[in-house]
Amino acid sequence: MTRREWLLSDYPQSRRQARAGQSYRTWLALKSNRLAMVGLWIVLALVAMAIFAPLIAPYDPLIGGDLRLDRLQPPSWEHLMGTDDLARDIFSRVMHGARLTLMVVALVAVIATPIGLTIGTTAGYLGGWVDVVLMRVTDIFLAFPRLILALAFVSALGPGIENAIIAIALTSWPPYARLARAETLTIRDSDFINAARLQGASRLRILWGHVTPLCLSSVIVRVTLDMAGIILTAAGLGFLGLGAQPPQPEWGAMIAGGRRFIIDYWWVATMPGIAIFVVSLGFNLLGDGLRDVLDPKAVK
Amino acid sequence: MAEFAPKVGGRGSALSFWLWKAVKLVLTVAVTFLGLLLITFLISHVMSVDPVLRVVGDRASQSTYDAMYLQMGLDKPIWQQFWIYLQKVLSGDFGNSFLTKKPVMGDIARAFPATLELATVAILIGTLVGVPVGVWSAVKAGKAFDQIVRVLGLVGYSAPIFWLGLLGLLVFYANLQWVAGPGRIDIAYEYSFTSVTGLMLLDTAMQGEWAAFGNAFSHIILPASLLGYFSMAYISRMTRSFMLAELAQEYVTTARVKGVPEWRIIWVHALKNAAVPLVTVVALSYAGLLEGSVLTETVFAWPGLGLYLTNSLQVADMNAVLGGTLVIGAIFVGLNLLSDLLYSLLDPRVRRRVRK
């Protein structure tokens, strides 16, 4: 029996085999979607760029070359994406910027997912007035356009990449709370929850031990779908000067830096924009594919 | 919402249904607005590092600081502060802007028409292009046209709008010179017409100042097309899925059997039914344009709400930022509400449910 047959067996011998088989089928379905695979490669390339940035980048991202000779050089073999007004190599800065982008995405996911999960599962499981209050709060957060609310938060906290991350996280949890609540409502009355309750499990134990793990997977898919939006919001904040501060090589802030002289030296603002575009396209393609695979109900 | 309707039979039920619905709606909106206010209050009074320092600056003496502390009411309990804030905001007083030294409310009222004009032209472009494209890609589902539209839509979702704006200026303004540059109108035309509505296209057209109209048009077309592209991506995608659902219905088969021409089935029979949920989509993307306008206005120096907000952000002008945030939030809520109402007005199934 090959490994493939073992995975695709209709009669799994163990839970582990069934679960592995399920994941393998999902993977096969995803693999057959060419656009989703392009997305996956882009995301993997981003991760690789972030990890190996110091090895790939030919120059220092923060210290520029000779200000008399190396400023605002057009793209060439020496400087693949040209140099900026401080004679820094843009290609190296874009490579290092991948680290910041990845950090923003990861931290927002790590902060927003637990908030959304906790609020959603609590509201769904407890029901009653707790549900009403928590869902009202969620709706109120949804009532603000995301970027605008993030702007207001950053204006109170002060500019900087950490505050931008907090602001984006504070504005991205509501959809996850909604989703987790909907999932919880379908789980709440199932037999295994009743069994746990009859055995005397506390509410907290049922919530954390039984309900939350089951909501986790669909929330994670939703977070993946949102990642392109998170990247664009972070870049927007950076562009407005409220995210990462110079000289950090954040892509949005780099576009803002090149904005003044875009007509004469187009590459300074264009190159980081291409990076944002490609990466968020990658996340969108991957997310689209994942949704098609994991949610057969979605209209194709 | 229908499940909350009281179960009363007879003709009176329709009236009590609408009454119940209206009460519920008003309550929901009131709670949401209160929530918006609470969030902006918390941002300005609790999260903010030191609101007094913001006003007086870090070189103020202790006595100035203390006087300001008292003047801002920060010695009072927090719920009392919120009450004062509530009263002020409800009477239209958002405080003065530190930047312009004028009341924030007046600043916002002056900036708003510019944003309204930009968003309206954008949504017109988005709808007039997005709906036919969506219909056609539903008809040609899976074919080349559909695939191209899908990719173009994904590009719209993925590209940062401020970057596309800069590239647009570079290509269409600086190189090709097809459109005018940043701003709403050239300085030469600024006084050739009187501002009545604040919407320049409307004002110039009404006064017959066609040269000024043309100039204003060449200023608005690039930012509006960009914003319109983003809403187009969403509108065409939704149109496509609504149309796919309609085209699979039995009445379409019936019409085909009866010999109704295919174009009539698509553009009249099916589109008419798909149009009902589309109204909601258009209203929501209109609201979404407010968000996009913050970055677009910054790039195009468009003197609207978004630019006002970002200019105030640069100097940490909290009153102006929160006033702008609140107004945009309120418009957002209002548009959501409007789309809800339109939906129940337009969909005969929602109406009929009342009579049953």
TrEMBL record, chain A:
It is a multi-pass membrane protein. It comes from the Bacteria. One of its GO terms (biological process) is protein transport. Keywords: Cell membrane, Membrane, Peptide transport, Protein transport, Transmembrane, Transmembrane helix, Transport. Pfam families: BPD_transp_1, OppC_N. One of its GO terms (cellular component) is plasma membrane. Its main location: membrane. The keyword ATP-binding does not apply. The chain crosses the membrane at residues 35-57, 100-126, 147-170, 219-244, 265-286. It is found in: Cell membrane. InterPro entries: BP-dependent_transpt_permease (IPR050366), MetI-like (IPR000515), MetI-like_sf (IPR035906), OppC_N (IPR025966). Residues 98-287 form the ABC transmembrane type-1 domain. The keyword Acyltransferase does not apply. SUPFAM superfamilies: MetI-like (SSF161098). Belongs to the binding-protein-dependent transport system permease family. PANTHER family: D,D-DIPEPTIDE TRANSPORT SYSTEM PERMEASE PROTEIN DDPC-RELATED, OLIGOPEPTIDE TRANSPORT SYSTEM PERMEASE PROTEIN APPC. This is D,D-dipeptide ABC transporter permease.
From TrEMBL, chain B:
GO terms for cellular component: plasma membrane. It is a multi-pass membrane protein. Its main location: membrane. It comes from the Bacteria. Residues 112-343 form the ABC transmembrane type-1 domain. Keywords: Cell membrane, Membrane, Transmembrane, Transmembrane helix, Transport. It holds the Pfam family BPD_transp_1. One of its GO terms (molecular function) is dipeptide transmembrane transporter activity. The chain crosses the membrane at residues 25-47, 118-139, 151-174, 216-235, 274-302, 322-346. It is found in: Cell membrane. PANTHER family: D,D-DIPEPTIDE TRANSPORT SYSTEM PERMEASE PROTEIN DDPB-RELATED, DIPEPTIDE TRANSPORT SYSTEM PERMEASE PROTEIN DPPB-RELATED. Belongs to the binding-protein-dependent transport system permease family. This is Peptide ABC transporter permease. It comes from Cereibacter changlensis JA139. The lineage of its organism: Bacteria, Pseudomonadati, Pseudomonadota, Alphaproteobacteria, Rhodobacterales.
